[in-house]
Design goal:
heterodimer, A: mainly beta, six-stranded mixed β-sheet, B: four-stranded antiparallel β-sheet, 11 strands, about 55% strand
Amino acid sequence: AQRVTQPEKLLSVFKGAPVELKCNYSYSGSPELFWYVQYSRQRLQLLLRHISRESIKGFTADLNKGETSFHLKKPFAQEEDSAMYYCALPPLGSGGSNYKLTFGKGTLLTVNP
Amino acid sequence: ETGVTQTPRHLVMGMTNKKSLKCEQHLGHNAMYWYKQSAKKPLELMFVYNFKEQTENNSVPSRFSPECPNSSHLFLHLHTLQPEDSALYLCASSQVKNSPLHFGNGTRLTVT
């Protein structure tokens, strides 16, 4: 069965420091992965998706098939980055379908001034 | 109002009550979803509707009954719930199956 693991429940960094939120997956094949974010008092929303290969709010995520990881990185964290981050994986063979996304348990990032 | 709207924001109900959660999306999306978010657990998909047809039922107990009268509205009818059903229930929508999910703010349900 496919699985998404976010090993860190909490992550705390200082403003300006690099940040890396870890996500590991178990999947047979080439997955398409997502990062969703929930800022305080806001709704859960898509941050970025693997297939887009884009940088959103300074965050990037690279798929490493050898390590089965999709870690989210930002070189210089800002206080406004403090939020709950979820890694998500669509079903095998679905072509990236949302229909049965498997979410990780999430990592709460706190960026201290 | 644009986006995905859920009502009520908070709901407290007894185990013998019957209540309904409502979700409305103004994004012109074709798919709608119910997710459950419990403490210490990942987001769990409950139901998916695509063009008003149910395409997923993720082994959800029958005390949860979804209804999708049209592509813009989604309901979750609740009856004889258990205290362990207390959670945040999130509604989401998407244009097509490969497009991003747009979530509502959720309904915080407490079963007493």
